[in-house]
Amino acid sequence: MAQFFKAKATSSKGKNLELTIESIDHQGRGVAKHQGKVCFVDGALAGECVKAQIQQEKAKLIIAKTVKVMTPSEQRTAAFCQDYQRCGGCQLQHLGHEYQLEHKHKALDALFSKFSKVTDLPWQLPIESEPTNYRRAARIACIFDTASRQLKLGFRGSKSKQIVEIQRCEVLTQPFTDIFSRLTEALNKHKAYSSISHIQLCDADNGQYVLLRHTKKIEQKYKDELENTLHGYQLLWDDGSENLVYRQLPSYQVGKLNFEFKLDNFVQVNRVVNENMLLQAFNWLDLSAQDRVLDLFCGIGNFSLLMAKQANEVIGVEGSQSSVAMAKQNAHTNQLNNVQFYCFDLTQQLAQANWFEASLNVLLLDPSRTGAYDILKQLPLTQFKKVLYVSCDPVTLARDSALLIEAGFELDKIGLMNMFPHTGHIETMALFQRR
Ligand SMILES: C[S@@+](CC[C@H](N)C(=O)[O-])C[C@H]1O[C@@H](n2cnc3c(N)ncnc32)[C@H](O)[C@@H]1O
């Protein structure tokens, strides 16, 4: 066989480029062009000239990170967190808080125009958040470093599995802002704690919970010692061998509704935004006493219970058995008997669903980032007069919206919810009405 000369591919990784940033994409990265390739640049803002280091180069694109801002945008601000450059939690602290929603608006406009050819979106006022101390739940990663014989605590680094040790986190609610240094000191007093692999924090309305996941047995005296050191926090020890026993389940309240949950259930992390989101959903849907609501991806019944106050009936569907159990319990303790919950994987065939009924006339969806395409393409959409789509991913929202528009719906209202300030996450509520 003929042998042709093929030059060795030289790696461009680590090389610096000077780039002029044209826009920011839906993940908060600067977008520029270089020799016919699209460059996505972490830490760069529209209008800026930056020096960027190449992380990865492919046939049509370059991934890079800003190493020097030569001409800063007037929207640029100093990050308030000293670990911002290393930690993977926030991506947009360099963009002034007041400009972050403007950027998210533009990103959604572009995605809707691309996927569903809808322009001039019917934007409503956004749901705002406090810029700091908004996050009531988080997961801390832990690793025992054999070289220093220390347990290290922190968040995963941006685009890596490395743990970034941090002292404080200003986006966590007040009781947890400085928990890192306190935990690091306490957990390094005894080797007994060295098998702790992660720690879950939850600032519930009825107490602050700290769940410690460990792989080896920890003697009771060491558990008691930590409990005394972290006085005021409710500690839970989880070695994965049996169901956790809660002295009292964590809970949050919205109006007169009380929601109990377990730490492995999904709960919305921004308390204030969640309350305003539920209220907005209630107002936008404007349900009548005849309406029968299908709430897909319902979790512990966050939306379902409020909707049940107004509607004739609500059917909630969720894939996590544990969340469904809590949703049923929450309906019972809130004395709502017109809401039923079912456990079902919504990527599966609708023909196997025992919860679907032709008389359901309002659809509410709140899927995870992968969106709701699988179930939406199977549902007989013509039976619904309204669809309320709560989204945590703008790309899947725009894609799924195209399907709804094609099925005869019109986008009536759309609004951002600033659930995670300073991050690239875009949370949106969209109301579709049948044309
Ligand atoms: C964004 S959360 C929303 C939960 C709830 N609506 C709330 O406001 O708290 C998405 C929910 O969808 C559930 N989920 C994810 N994939 C699913 C699937 N394939 N089938 C059913 N439920 C799923 C998750 O367990 C989670 O509870």
TrEMBL record:
Annotated coiled-coil segments of the chain: none
EC number(s) stated in the UniProt entry for this protein: 2.1.1.190
Residues reported to bind S-adenosyl-L-methionine: Q268, F297, E318, D366
One MF term in the entry's GO annotations: rRNA (uridine-C5-)-methyltransferase activity
Active site: C392
CDD domains: AdoMet_MTases
Gene3D superfamilies: 2.40.50.1070, Nucleic acid-binding proteins, Vaccinia Virus protein VP39
Key word Metal-binding present: yes
Assigned keywords, A-Z: 4Fe-4S, Iron, Iron-sulfur, Metal-binding, Methyltransferase, S-adenosyl-L-methionine, Transferase
SUPFAM superfamilies tied to this protein: Nucleic acid-binding proteins, S-adenosyl-L-methionine-dependent methyltransferases
Biological processes per GO annotation: rRNA base methylation
Domain of life: Bacteria
PROSITE patterns: SAM_MT_RNA_M5U, TRAM, TRMA_1, TRMA_2
One Pfam family linked to the record: TRAM
Residue ranges of every copy of the TRAM domain listed in the record: 10-68
Family from the record: Belongs to the class I-like SAM-binding methyltransferase superfamily. RNA M5U methyltransferase family.
PANTHER family to which the protein is assigned, alphabetical: 23S RRNA (URACIL(1939)-C(5))-METHYLTRANSFERASE RLMD, RNA M5U METHYLTRANSFERASE
Name of the molecule in the record: 23S rRNA (Uracil(1939)-C(5))-methyltransferase RlmD
